[in-house]
Amino acid sequence: MSVAISIDEVVKRYGDNTIIPGLTEHIKNGEFFTLLGPSGCGKTTLLRMIAGFNSIEGGEVKFNDKVINGIPAHKRNIGMVFQSYAIFPHMTVRENVEYGLKLRKMSKAEMKDKVDRILDVVQITEYQDRLPERLSGGQQQRVALARAIVIHPSVLLMDEPLSNLDAKLRVEMRSAIREVQKQVGITTVYVTHDQEEALSISDRIAVMKKGEIQQTGVPHTIYTRPYNVFVSTFIGHSNLFHGHLETADEGLAAVFPDGYRMPLTGLAPEAAPGQEVIISVRPEEFSIRPSGSGEGVSCRIHSRVFLGKYITYGLEFAENMILPNQPSIEYSQDLGHAERMLEVGETVTLKPNAVKVNIFAADGSHSLMAGVVQNE
Predict the structure, then answer these.
(1) Which helix (H) or strand (E) holds 58?
(2) How confident is the model at residue 22, as a pLDDT?
(3) Sign of the CA dihedral 221, 375, 12, 211?
(4) How far apart are CA 117 and CA 184, in angstroms?
């Protein structure tokens, strides 16, 4: 039976180095919960603390209402799927999947029934008599998944399980993992640094940075209403502009350094006239307006990358318009609706979609959009 996981003010230290300074999170029973963040942010460390592979220097981890801090890993009833498949090369697929059940001294009849069912669920029945060396990477990962689930663990923990697969296989396997998880209904904690992967399979995502959770929410919220600038730029791409707020006919307007005024709705009560802000615009949130119309911000096209359905343009703005040290400033054009492609060197006027842009405090620490919360 799966469980809810409560993480309360958890601390992880290595000597004098604090990796996780006091993290709190709640993972619901049966949900697919993803820890997402850059390398070194502490996501795998946290996963290993839940698993019992890493010690806990402060706080508590609970499965339902039971504190598990002092329970050894092999008694926590967890299933684990690693980046390396960690399946036994000298055993057939069936023997690999049976392994955990044999350790539990299950009867042969019951073991056969359980293995038959899980092989069918992960769609590897036809490979059950093969050795791992005769399987593709995706098939080996299915074996690892079957072996982790067949023991009916309370929690399934997955650490970058798809990073060794090629791009096409990753897409296929993330769909398979999501389907299997929902079919089995097991609480799953999934670690990845791949934003697209996290957005496509998760019930909720926790975005981590330096051992702290920046925002927890459903994928749509994390993408459309990020809590701070880090989340805005880590999940997908965001163009960051300097700006300030002014009184408009109805409410407030965000004013760009070149004078373009963008009336806004949906700002939080703390947003006030005269306030310096960061204006965040995703590449797909621009639309082309007639040059010189004053209906947007003016820029120059300095590069063009054809991506099939979309073209991504690299943009040049006056230095005072944008925040420094951004890897790129981009506009994404949907070719299904485009009247024409833009040319490198061309000067264009781009209008941000005022309904979809995000406004942040000048230090980037939090959103000024109404209703945006750090933990959802």
Answers:
(1) strand 58-63
(2) 96
(3) positive
(4) 11
pLDDT of residue 151: 87
Tell how strand 204-209 and strand 187-192 pair up. Answer: unpaired
Considering the domain 5-224 in this protein, what is its CATH number?
3.40.50.300
* Domain extent listing, the chain: 5-224, 229-361
Q: Give pTM, 2 decimals.
A: 0.92
**How far is residue 236's CA from residue 306's CA, in Å, rounded to a whole number?**
18
Residue with tokens 């601390």: 11
List, for the chain, all residue ranges whose pLDDT scores fall below the cut of 50. Answer: none
CA-closest candidate to residue 134, choices 91, 104, 175, 98 = 91
Tell me whether strands 212-217 and 204-209 are parallel, antiparallel or unpaired. Answer: antiparallel
Half-sphere exposure of 290 (CA within 13 A, CB side): 2
Taking the mean position of all CA atoms in its chain, how far away is CA 244? 30
Q: How far is CA 124 from CA 17, 79, 127, 143, 158, in A?
A: 44, 19, 5, 8, 19
Helix 108-121 × helix 93-103 angle, to 10°:
130
Distance CA 349, CA 245 (A): 21
DSSP secondary structure string, 15-28?
Answer: TTEEEEEEEEEEE-
Using CA atoms, how far apart are residues 376 and 374, in angstroms rounded to an integer? 7
How crowded is residue 192: how many other Cβ atoms within 10 Å of its Cβ? 23
Assess contact for 315 and 301: CB atoms under 8 A.
yes
What does the block give as tokens for 291? 């040059």
72: closest CA among 51, 57, 103?
51
